[in-house]
């Protein structure tokens, strides 16, 4: 009877997985495993549910348990390969796919993924070999003296682009761009809605001009609304601003980004926004999202702020779609320029000297302070290191239990409420705001309400069914401020699937 009950729980888990109810599926598979821990399929199926929730480290563990339960069960190797590839461990993924192809030589999907991972690994080795300090900036390769080639979809608004100089070390161009008006941005949005692209000359100019602007900002930006109580180091007071809206991941969901602005208000002199990383990848309008945010940053440099996320990195862009999208819609040069500009994005923002906002989370060392974040030299390399506080700002996640544990993603750590409490006390903060994880309600208050996760990509990947959310800061008369979390639903978009510009790898 126990085996029959376990199989029934597995079947229910399969149904939940098919209906994208991943957490329910994980719970049902776990119950099945508790009744009968000898069945390879139970671990393999739970691994697939973990993959769908981006718990890749746990998926690797379940793939291993599936293989241990039955070394001839090929799906265990397959699941572990997909999970390892998701956290950029291509060598391990290739080893497992070779086993699959020995046991099932006719498996076309395994062969496709094997060949793709080998290709990615070779390309990465080649890029690492040719990349050096003397590698010219992609931003130095654009000739702005030539007229626009091909169709210019702009009818009413044009950009005036002037090269004002070059960087003596990288030969990167400094340019002045005039004409980024509200009307230009409105027309650009209409062009995107029609499925058309920017002229490459305009696209390149927006990236270079925004990169020049981002490079002037510190690694931790310090902003405050007028009359907020605390004063701090290098604080920029956003005079005249009534509301500061913090958004989490938008992940190339262009129509949901437009809905945020249409619902809560556009960036303007009285309304500032902070986007907390992961603008690109997954969704298939990542270039449109990036161009809209860059244009708004240029139009309102002290009203729109951008933090870097773990998906504003080359390794993630190769797997999750942004590189392929840039090449399909524009050119490899455009992707390389975006990649360079991502290296200029700040890593954190301090609001009112009271709330620290970063994409991932806190640190493996209790002694890290705000000054340590300020001192990060994010220009040493365009790609963040694989360890240390810069990586942790982009990758770590909270957990409900005290202390620290390895991250369920397979990268970085998880930190408990005691870690959050200690960091807030030692740095005189009221709380932490971070993103990086789907929350079914769009946001979640954790760690005795001292940590808030906000996620702004509703119905993530057209499959999760989650709400999106934003956080609004407004100041009271006494200098304290309101912090209000507001939710919204996904809106319709054209029939283009997520990750349309990359091989899905079962993710």
Automatic annotation (TrEMBL):
Keywords: Hydrolase, Manganese, Metal-binding, Nucleus, Protein phosphatase, Repeat, TPR repeat. The keyword Amino-acid biosynthesis does not apply. It is found in: Nucleus. GO terms for molecular function: metal ion binding; protein serine/threonine phosphatase activity. The active site is at residue 311. Its cofactor is Mn(2+); Mg(2+). TPR repeats lie at residues 6-39. GO terms for cellular component: cytoplasm; nucleus. It is an enzyme of class 3 (hydrolase). Belongs to the PPP phosphatase family. PP-5 (PP-T) subfamily. This is Serine/threonine-protein phosphatase. It comes from Saccharomycopsis crataegensis.
């Amino acid at each position: 009877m126990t085996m029959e009950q376990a199989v029934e729980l597995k079947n229910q888990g399969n149904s939940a997985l098919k209906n994208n109810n991943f957490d329910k599926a994980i719970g049902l598979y776990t119950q099945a495993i508790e009744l009968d821990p000898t069945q390879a399929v139970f671990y393999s199926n739970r691994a697939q549910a973990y993959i769908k929730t981006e718990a890749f480290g746990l998926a690797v563990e379940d793939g291993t348990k599936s293989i241990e339960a039955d070394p001839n069960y090929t799906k265990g190797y397959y699941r572990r390969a997909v999970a390892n590839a998701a956290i950029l461990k291509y060598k391990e993924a290739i080893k497992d796919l070779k086993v699959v192809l020995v046991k099932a030589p006719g498996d076309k999907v395994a062969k496709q993924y094997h060949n793709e991972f080998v290709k990615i690994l070779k390309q990465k080795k080649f890029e690492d070999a040719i990349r050096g300090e003397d590698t010219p900036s992609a931003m130095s390769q654009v000739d702005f003296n030539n007229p626009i080639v091909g169709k210019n979809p702009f009818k009413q608004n044009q950009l005036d682009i002037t090269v004002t100089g070059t960087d003596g070390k990288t030969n990167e161009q400094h340019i002045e761009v005039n004409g980024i008006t509200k009307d230009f941005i409105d027309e650009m949005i209409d062009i995107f809605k029609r499925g058309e692209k920017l002229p490459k000359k305009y696209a390149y100019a927006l990236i270079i001009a925004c990169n020049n602007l981002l490079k002037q900002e510190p690694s931790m930006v310090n902003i405050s609304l007028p009359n907020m109580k605390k004063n701090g180091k290098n604080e920029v007071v956003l005079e005249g601003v009534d509301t500061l809206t913090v958004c989490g991941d938008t992940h190339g969901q262009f129509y949901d980004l437009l809905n945020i602005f249409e619902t809560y208000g556009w960036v303007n002199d009285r309304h500032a926004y902070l986007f907390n990383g992961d603008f690109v990848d997954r969704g298939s309008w990542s270039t449109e999202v990036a161009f809209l945010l860059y244009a708004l940053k240029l139009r309102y440099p002290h009203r729109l702020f951008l933090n870097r996320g773990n998906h504003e990195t080359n390794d993630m862009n190769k797997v999750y779609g942004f590189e392929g999208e840039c090449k399909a819609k524009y050119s490899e040069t455009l992707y390389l320029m975006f990649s360079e500009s991502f290296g200029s994005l700040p890593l954190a923002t301090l609001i009112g000297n009271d709330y620290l906002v970063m994409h991932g989370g806190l640190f493996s060392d209790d002694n890290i302070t705000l000054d340590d974040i300020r001192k990060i030299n994010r220009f040493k390399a365009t790609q963040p290191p694989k360890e240390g506080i810069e990586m942790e700002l982009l990758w770590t996640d909270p957990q409900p239990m005290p202390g620290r544990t390895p991250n369920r993603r397979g990268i970085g750590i998880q930190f408990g409420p005691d870690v959050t409490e200690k960091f807030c006390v030692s740095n005189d903060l009221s709380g932490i705001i971070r993103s990086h994880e789907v929350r079914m309600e769009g946001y979640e208050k954790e760690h005795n309400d001292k940590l808030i996760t906000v996620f702004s990509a509703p119905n993530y990947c057209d499959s999760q069914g989650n709400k999106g959310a934003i956080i609004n800061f407004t100041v009271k008369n006494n200098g304290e401020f309101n912090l209000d979390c507001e939710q919204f639903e996904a809106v319709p978009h054209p029939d283009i699937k997520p990750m349309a510009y990359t091989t899905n790898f079962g993710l």
